[in-house]
């Protein structure tokens, strides 16, 4: 539990920056929705804001160097599949769980989000993170690519389950046509 709290604390600066950016762009987004004859519920806006904050926090958590852990150096590369699977199972589970929102939130917020898009987004975001980590003294790990992509796919599956159980709730997260 301490480790989770530490990660959330590490994510806080990025989450706050993303919240500020979301709030700055909100009036423009609102005007664009009105021009298109659409409305966005408070529930949808809260979910969108939370997703922005999560993305900002993940950016700080995954793309910044760990200055306290080691002096700057180029990162290491692991291209051997399943090598890190022998590590702590909590870390493996964490690699999956931390990418569930990248499959869940887009499916919840935007129509037409398919399992293929969830896989591509998970793989693309992870590939970007892993390649960037090489430049900040961290590690590129093919197992992270696999596990994070699986997490995004599981997020999409979670959305599918929610849609089957509570279709009216999931529909409330989409933009609606404005009533005139």
Q: What's the gist of this structure?
A:
With 180 residues, the chain is mainly α. The protein has seven helices and four strands; from the N terminus they run H-E-H-E-H-H-H-E-H-H-E. 69% of the residues lie in helices and 6% in strands.
If you had to describe this structure to a student in words, what would you say it looks like?
Helix 4 runs parallel beside helix 6. By secondary structure, this protein is mainly alpha-helical. It is globular, with a radius of gyration of 18 Å. The protein has seven helices and four strands, in the order αβαβαααβααβ. The longest helix has 34 residues.
List keywords for this structure.
180 residues, two-stranded parallel ribbon, 7 helices, globular, 4 strands
What share of the residues lie within helices?
55-70%
Average pLDDT level: 91
What proportion of the residues form beta strands (DSSP E)? 5-15%
Low-confidence stretches: none
Q: Span from first to last CA?
A: 50 Å
Q: How many domains make up the 3D coordinates?
A: 1
Biggest sheet strand order reads: 1-4
Number of helices: 7
**Helix/strand/pairing class, anyone?**
mainly alpha
Per DSSP E runs of 2 or more residues, the count of β-strands stands at 4
Secondary-structure element sequence? Answer: HEHEHHHEHHE
The main sheet comes to: 2 strands, antiparallel
Taking Cα atoms only, what radius of gyration do you get, to the nearest Å? 18 Å
Q: Write down the overall geometry.
A: globular
